[in-house]
């Protein structure tokens, strides 16, 4: 009845695994207990879990991302500690547990930290930047969040029940095949990615339709803020790239569950088909993660340089060029496959070419700062740290684009350093910049800047300490994912890398302290005007936090710095002569129910509990059908209520000396 599930699934194979499971369970119980103790279940259900307000859904995405950032960092710290002490010794991690850790670290950071973080920021800001009241499909937004949370839940429960994959975050066969890896770990990985991937694809569709159909009057495509352009590019990549990953992991599941031979090493299977499909998704995924961060950097640089973006159109064209070229470079991830010299040369050249539009962006940002009145807000520090660090990572990428050099350094720690050198400053620094930049817009008060700056300096110093030694180790011949080693010359570099991870941990602590201090002092840091940074784009026209409808009157746009241009003309805070009723999406629990059934389905398939899997599928189908028959999907906000909210807004504007 319970398939493969038994008491053997409990993590007694390692004291480290058991400790992690206990901490996970205790934390979960503590959170449930606190919510119950303060009687907040009704509030959470009414105001958050069932809300279709894009801003609240975005905040929940970011909260999920921050939780998974902490979880993924714990894995990273454990790997660094193991390698620091594992010279001529077994260290403290059993080999199989070490393999689980590097697999879960990559999976969490890419799928369940970075993707929710960027999706959350897009949800909160993009509709406001284009002058919209919500995304095009509010319920689809809630369903996407439910599917993403279900995937994250499968990864987290693998800490407690069963084991996670040992095949790496890429899941290459034969390591992920049922013969080599017969346990449940790879199945957890497959279904976590399947669920989150479907949610991401739906989000991409939602964002594209919102941008193309919901822009304010006068906002042509070339009047959109750069963040909206990068969102459009990233969302386009989502809907074209993620199906490749969905198909690849589905076929791998068929190999494992039904004994098929898509990716086996015999009976007509071909391992390289999987690797091609994975990286046809994988390299566009790099730009799915990085392009929204590029948009954030563009907004931050313009705002804190007190200038319009230099070369706005060139930034737009560079963004779309990167999106297009990202589909032409996937083979550089496996030059060692054995393709012909001509094939390798083509993909090597394409990889170098994609650096050109990225260079255009860097020069445009630098020229925006040139002769600007720069304010060193923490968001600006993240941006400056990104520019310097990302250029270093880009140069190492051009080196790896040379097939002979790649042959030498393939699967070494040089590659680990390069990959992190692109994604930590290229994506995570951008998300943290956006988090600090737009926090007052989401919550109505600013974050403490002192702790924000301390967090930045710990992250940037820790990054260089953690990853620069890995470049050297790659040249010295150290392969990645080594659980122990015998070469004494490597250990000082690995100890330095572990020190860097410690400094980053202090940076994470600074982020937590920043949030706590800011909440404590929120009364003194209220954003009364909705525009604490003298912003340039439309999100700063709304209140902080915005009303459920965002804009009582949809603005008319004349420039890509729409709000700045309105302030110059003196029409930013003009009262309308009359207000009109507004229709908004009605709350629904269907998205939460879908996510719950999806989690049950994934867990049941992992453990071969087929009756539960069928029941969950029926539940998903019934929920979707029931939702499709629901006619009362909107509610009306009367003009009188809107006028009352807007009167309070203008009173706050007066108190904040904005009028």
From TrEMBL:
CDD domains to which the protein is assigned, alphabetical: Ubiquinol_Oxidase_I
Pfam families linked to this entry: COX1
Origin superkingdom: Bacteria
Ranges that cross the membrane: 12-36, 57-81, 101-125, 137-161, 188-212, 224-254, 274-297, 309-333, 345-367, 379-402, 422-443, 455-473, 493-517, 583-603, 609-630
Residue span, Cytochrome oxidase subunit I profile domain: 39-558
Major place of residence: membrane
SUPFAM superfamilies from the UniProt entry: Cytochrome c oxidase subunit I-like
Statement: the UniProt record of this protein carries the keyword Transmembrane helix: yes
Location(s) in or outside the cell: Cell membrane
Gene Ontology annotations for the cellular component aspect, listed alphabetically: plasma membrane
Record key words, sorted: Cell membrane, Copper, Electron transport, Heme, Iron, Membrane, Metal-binding, Respiratory chain, Transmembrane, Transmembrane helix, Transport
Annotated PROSITE patterns: COX1, COX1_CUB
Protein topology in the membrane: Multi-pass membrane protein
Biological process per Gene Ontology, one example term: respiratory electron transport chain
One function term, GO molecular function aspect: cytochrome bo3 ubiquinol oxidase activity
UniProt record similarity statement: Belongs to the heme-copper respiratory oxidase family.
Official protein name in the record: Cytochrome bo3 quinol oxidase subunit 1 apoprotein
Organism of provenance: Microbulbifer donghaiensis
């Amino acid at each position: 009845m319970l398939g493969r599930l038994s008491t053997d699934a409990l993590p007694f194979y390692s004291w480290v695994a058991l400790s992690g499971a206990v901490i996970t369970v205790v934390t979960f119980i503590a959170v449930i207990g606190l919510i119950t103790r303060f009687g907040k279940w009704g509030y959470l259900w009414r105001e958050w879990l069932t809300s279709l307000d894009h801003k609240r859904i975005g905040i929940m995405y970011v909260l999920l991302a921050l939780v998974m950032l902490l979880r993924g960092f714990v894995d990273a710290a454990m790997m660094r500690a193991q390698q620091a002490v594992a010279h001529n010794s077994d260290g403290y991690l059993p080999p199989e547990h070490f393999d689980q850790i590097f697999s879960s670290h990559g999976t969490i950071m890419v799928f369940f930290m970075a993707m929710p973080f960027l999706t959350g920021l897009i949800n909160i800001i993009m509709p406001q930047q284009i002058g919209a009241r919500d995304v095009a499909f509010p319920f689809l937004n809630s369903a996407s969040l439910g599917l993403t949370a279900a995937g994250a839940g499968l990864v987290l429960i693998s800490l407690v029940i069963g084991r996670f994959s040992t095949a790496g975050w890429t899941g290459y066969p034969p390591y992920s095949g049922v013969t080599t890896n017969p346990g449940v770990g790879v199945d957890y990985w497959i279904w976590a990615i399947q669920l989150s991937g479907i949610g991401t694809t739906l989000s991409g569709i939602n964002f594209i339709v919102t941008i193309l159909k919901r822009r304010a009057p006068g906002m042509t495509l070339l009047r959109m803020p750069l963040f909206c352009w990068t969102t459009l590019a990233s969302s386009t990549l989502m809907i074209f790239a993620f199906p490749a990953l969905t198909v690849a992991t589905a076929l791998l599941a068929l190999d494992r569950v039904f004994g098929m031979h898509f990716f086996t090493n015999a009976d007509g299977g071909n391992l390289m088909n999987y690797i091609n499909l994975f990286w046809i998704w994988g390299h566009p995924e790099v730009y799915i993660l990085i392009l929204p961060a590029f948009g954030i950097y563009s907004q931050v640089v313009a705002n804190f340089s007190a200038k319009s973006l230099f070369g706005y159109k060139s930034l737009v064209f560079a963004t779309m060029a990167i999106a297009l070229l990202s589909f032409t470079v996937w083979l550089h991830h496996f030059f060692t496959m054995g393709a012909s010299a001509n094939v390798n040369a083509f993909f090597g050249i394409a990889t170098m070419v994609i650096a050109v539009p990225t260079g255009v962006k860097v020069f445009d940002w630098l020229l925006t700062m040139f002769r600007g009145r720069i304010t060193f807000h923490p968001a600006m520090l993240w941006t400056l740290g990104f520019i310097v660090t990302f250029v270093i990572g880009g140069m190492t990428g051009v080196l790896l684009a040379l097939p002979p050099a790649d042959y030498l350094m393939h699967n070494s720690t040089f590659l680990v350093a390069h990959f992190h050198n692109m994604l930590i400053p290229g994506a995570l620094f951008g998300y943290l910049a956006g988090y600090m930049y737009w926090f007052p817009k989401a919550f109505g008060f600013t974050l403490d800047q002192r702790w924000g700056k301390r967090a930045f300096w710990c992250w940037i110093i820790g990054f260089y300490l953690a990853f620069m030694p890995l470049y050297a180790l790659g040249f010295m011949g150290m392969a990645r994912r080594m659980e122990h080693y015998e070469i004494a010359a490597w250990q000082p570099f690995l100890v330095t890398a572990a020190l860097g991870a410690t400094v980053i941990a202090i940076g994470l602590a600074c982020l937590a302290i920043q949030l706590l201090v800011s909440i404590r002092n929120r009364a003194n840091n209220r954003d009364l005007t909705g525009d604490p940074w003298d912003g340039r784009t439309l999100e700063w026209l709304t209140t902080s936090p915005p009303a459920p409808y965002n804009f009582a009157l949809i603005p008319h746009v004349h420039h890509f710095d729409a709000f700045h241009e309105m302030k110059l003309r003196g029409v930013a805070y003009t009262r309308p002569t009359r207000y009109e009723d507004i229709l908004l999406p009605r709350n629904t629990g269907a998205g939460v129910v879908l996510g719950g059934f999806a989690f049950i389905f994934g867990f049941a398939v992992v453990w071969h509990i087929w009756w539960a899997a069928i029941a969950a599928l029926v539940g998903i189908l019934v929920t979707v059908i029931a939702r499709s028959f629901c006619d009362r999907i909107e509610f009306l906000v009367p003009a009188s209520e809107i006028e009352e909210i807007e009167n309070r807004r203008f009173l706050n504007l007066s108190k904040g000396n904005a009028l």
